[in-house]
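hi got a favour to ask and not much time before my train. below you get a single protein, a line of residues and a line of whole numbers that encode the local backbone shape. could you go over both lines and see whether the tokens make sense for that sequence. a few lines back from you is plenty, here it is:
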Amino acid sequence: MTKPKIAKTERQVMLDIYRKEAEKSFNNFGGDVDEYDDEYDDEYDDEYDDEYDDEFDPKMGAGSLSISDRYITINIASTAVANAVVPLFGAFKNLYATAPQFNIPAGVTVSVPDSSYGQLLAETQSNPFVVKGVRMSTSNAAQFSQNLLFVTEQAGGRSTSEPLNPERFRSAYQQQSTIIEMTKLSFLVDGNTRIEFTALPGVQTTITLTVNTKLDLGRVAQGKNGLEVAKKKRRRK
């Protein structure tokens, strides 16, 4: 007997969309190593993505991300005497940790200027988002030699991890050695996903994430499409 198909909830559909979108340029957190984009400005307002816009808007009736929701800034400061592995995100594991400060090691401070790191963790549980574009600035360029480890852990025990070295994105045209822009880097942030950041002693680092799409359950509760998209204006030729 053929088993009847079970309809997916809207949240499941949105999560499937997120994963497919992230995997286009970041397969299993492997990264997309492209050369530095000279036209990519400080505001991450790069070329209008027609293919992306056609997929999500207006066919799906997605909402529009506000300017404030399109960028997330995380500050990491270490006064530790040795390298410290800092788990960023991974709310299902770190938000309810018995260790102080969400499993952040002693001597390291993680802050989110626009709200709080705890609030950011809490939101990723129900409002996952896709990042497309990362900017890192640091007080010591040696920080870029440390890998970022992208880890996904499921409740059933399955775990995947992929390293990414920021130095791979350095461009010969970039003048400032303490800034790296990974414009094409794309990945999903949800409760199961964390980034293990190795902080060097005495170094301060700022990571700015550009949010491309986000699931807003508040819109679902109002009977709307739960997906919010960062819509961009076309540039004049």
Remarks:
- Residues 27-59 have pLDDT under 50 and may be disordered.
- Residues 48 and 235 are 7 Å apart (CA to CA).
